[in-house]
Amino acid sequence: MTTVAAMSAEALPAEFNPFLAMAERFETASDHLGLDPGVRKVLKTPDRELTVAIPVQMDDGRLEVFTGYRVQHNFSRGPCKGGIRFAPDVNLDEVKALAAWMTWKCSVVDVPFGGGKGGVICDPRTLSEAELEKITRRYTSAIMDIIGPDRDVPAPDVNTGEKHMAWFMDTYSMHVRRTCTAVVTGKPIQLGGSKGRTEATGRGVMLVAREGIKKLGLRPEQCRVVVQGSGNVGGIGAMLMQREGYKIVSISDMYGAIYEPKGLDIPEVLAYVREKKRLTGYPKAQAIKQEEQLSLDCEILVPAATENQITSKNADKVKAKLVIEGANGPTTAAADKILEKRGIIVVPDILANAGGVTVSYFEWVQDRAGFFWTEETVNSRLEQIMSSSFAAVDETAKKHKTSLRIGAYILAIGRVAEVYRLRGTYA
Ligand code: NAD
Questions:
Q1: Residue 411 near ligand 1, beta carbon < 6 Å
Q2: Could you say which of 52, 105, 188, 292 would form a disulfide bridge with 142 (CB–CB 3.0 to 4.6 Å)?
Q3: What CATH superfamily is the domain 48-193?
Q4: pTM beyond cutoff 0.90
């Protein structure tokens, strides 16, 4: 993690505060929509913020207390939806921003969910499997009253995955005295998970890249790609893009970055990371500094690691023509302006990484129906939603003569505001 990401929210300069970053884009889009000041207040304010204490008996017998959050930003379009992250730098401002981004993301791809997000302040690298399971289960029971298939449906995020979702589903099910698979998505297939969910966010990144390069008049074989992050989004996104014919010249993880101008063999790189738990030492590429990655010569840059990576300090060094935001919030609002001035197209996070929530929606639908789809059905429905959403965002941006990011916000906020108008204010 960068130093910036490791600071507490209070210590963060305004540029790096993700909630302020979201609010700035929200205001710009709301100006385009001519949104009423009262409705702006409603849509900007999280519906609910919950902070919980998670006491856990550690392996050495010590009692430790972790802090967890669940924020439900807006549930007017349906149950809240959003991941749970386990990281030492989790803070309430970050969770609030991520929850709001989920509201806009679900709206951009037009799935019937609102936005939520959760997190636990902990460092999974220092925790045993048993401690992680205890944290997950106690966190689940602590937020029990506000979640459920019709209320709020969590999912994996940074440092959480299938096994955490299995523990989450089991804990919830024990409390409600029935097996309830639809309470969480991103589960193992045997527990009601959906085929294609693991690859969905990376697949979505690949699908928007397909649409993005059309705007530049390029074909995949003409594009060198730099990917920051080699986890679920970056690793799988890079692999699927390589399969489409792109040349992946650099990839990184939290320990370092590698570069090979002739193109990396991504499945081999990922197999190395699985075995060694880090990229460092990969023998068939040059080791470079993580910071150097963002200014490498390439056509496409995919930041797919964490927030605040492209900032006012380095946006002028980005050489890519197209930035595809696999991560949430990798570009600050100040950097947006610099990239826009330089003619660099940014496919914003709320569209670029929406493949994950789209297939999470498919998983929730399948769990509720008790009828499961083939991987081909999942992938073709995802492709249809990602390409039509890209077209809708592009059209909105053109109509308002603005960037794809603000176009996406206009589309998303407009849809939520319309639902709010139709439902009215309950008093
Ligand atoms: P992950 O934990 O699987 O992978 C994160 C990767 O980023 C790891 O390779 C890690 O080593 C690397 N990393 C962390 N800090 C880095 C740094 N400073 N420089 C370079 N690499 C760094 O997480 P993920 O699920 O791939 O999520 C990545 C981002 O995508 C997050 O912002 C997350 O919120 C977002 N996202 C994830 C999903 C999903 O379905 N997993 C969906 C939408 C958005």
A1: no
A2: 52
A3: Leucine Dehydrogenase, chain A, domain 1 (3.40.50.10860)
A4: yes
**Which residue has the CA at smallest separation from atom 23 of ligand 1?**
158
117 among known catalytic residues: yes
The ranges assigned to domains in the chain are 48-193, 198-352
Q: Whose CA is nearest to atom 13 of ligand 1?
A: 254
Distance 86 CA to ligand 1 centre (A): 12
* Contact partners, residue 109, CB within 8 Å, separation at least 6: 351, 354, 357, 358, 385, 386, 389
Cβ(118) – ligand 1 distance below 6 Å: no
Encode pLDDT of 351-373 as tens digits. 999 999 999 999 999 999 999 99
Superfamily (CATH) of domain 198-352? NAD(P)-binding Rossmann-like Domain (3.40.50.720)
The CA distance from 393 to 416, in Å, is: 15
Please, which pLDDT band fits residue 2 given cuts at 50, 70 and 90? very low
The answer, yes or no, to whether any atom of ligand 1 lies below 6 A from the CB of 229, is: yes
- One fold for 48-193 and 198-352: yes
CB atoms within 10 A of CB 254: 15
Spatial separation of the C-alpha atoms in residues 141 and 34, rounded to whole Å: 42
